[in-house]
Design goal:
Largest sheet: 5 strands, antiparallel
CATH topology of the largest domain: Beta-Lactamase
Number of helices: 15
Number of strands: 5
Strand content: 5-15%
Strand order of the largest sheet: 2-1-5-4-3
Distance between the termini: 77 Å
Shape: elongated
Structural class: alpha+beta
CATH architecture of the largest domain: 2-Layer Sandwich
Length: 293
């Protein structure tokens, strides 16, 4: 009995494949650059397209032998500092830099990608969120800052976010400090613990980023409760899960928090809350229809 071609094929080494893909990308990027635009001198009448490897190594302030191995797709270990220098030498965009860091198996460097995203229609997201009514919906960024929301979400959390200053529109911060919101959360500590665990997982890609460090220090300073939870060092993935609220005169409301990504590169996530059954759908309807307390 003979083995098939697939059975005799050597196992795929993902690390080698990534290294080769990285090398191919670096070469293509190097060959696409105009040396004159970068102020590099010309030698002789002709030259190969783009930059020479020596010129990239010089711009990145690394050794030519090391850069050659990297471009040849050899599975060598590379530090984030060196890879960032190579990306800068090759004039890589934020998206391209994130790509080569991913291929190298490194966490993406802290960057201004999320702040540089320009929407074709800035009001489109708010329109979408509004159209989801009567389902509560909110758009958050990676740090839980609230980007957009609808009226149903305000009724869900018992807070008119239009009255909240922009700098305070952060889901973790409000869950820690706003008494109106805490009143209707059936288990505030559980909700905060879940958000803190997800935030810790998110921060792995932003270690050393001053903006993220300032944000974390603000949360730690505003609440001993958050500090205790944070130092438990828990992480969790982003998953759909049930959140419970409790309202005077209506009782408990259980909704499934579903997650949708608007701009993954910017970390924007659309949360839509769906009642788990007809009974909870009726409670949500009464809550939204009632006059704000």
């Amino acid at each position: 009995m003979h083995a098939s071609k697939d059975e005799t094929k050597a196992p795929v080494d993902e690390k080698v494949d990534r290294a080769q893909e990285l090398g191919a990308f670096l070469r293509a990027r190097r060959e696409s650059l105009d040396p004159q635009r970068l102020g590099l001198p010309r030698y002789g009448r002709t030259r190969t397209p783009g930059l020479r490897r020596e010129e990239v190594a010089q711009l990145a302030e690394i050794g030519i032998t090391w850069y050659t191995k990297l471009e040849q797709g050899r599975p060598i270990r590379v530090s984030a500092k060196v890879l960032q220098a190579v990306a800068s030498a090759l004039q890589c965009t934020d998206t391209e830099t994130r790509y080569i860091f991913t291929l190298a198996g490194l966490a993406s460097p802290a960057s201004g990608v999320s702040r540089q995203i320009c929407r074709l229609m800035p009001n489109a997201v708010q329109t979408i969120v509004n159209q989801l009514h009567p389902l509560p919906a909110v758009l958050q960024n990676e740090k839980y800052d609230i980007v957009a929301f609808n009226h149903a979400f305000c009724r869900l959390i018992n807070r008119d976010l239009n009255l909240v200053p922009l700098e305070e529109r952060n889901c973790i911060y409000l869950a820690l400090t706003d008494p109106q919101i805490r009143t209707v959360l059936q288990d505030p500590q559980q909700v905060i613990a879940h958000m803190a665990a997800r935030l810790r997982a998110q921060m792995a890609a932003h270690l050393g980023d001053p903006a993220w460090e300032r944000y974390l220090q603000r949360l730690l300073a505003c609440s001993p409760e958050f500090s205790n939870i944070w130092h438990q060092n828990r992480v969790c993935a982003t998953t759909d899960h049930i959140v419970c609220y409790r309202y005077a005169g209506l009782g408990a409301l259980e909704v499934l928090q579903t997650n949708w990504w608007s701009l993954p590169v910017a970390g924007e996530r659309l949360l839509v809350y769906v009642p788990i059954d007809d009974a909870n759908r009726e409670i949500l309807h009464k809550r939204i229809s009632a006059n704000a307390s």
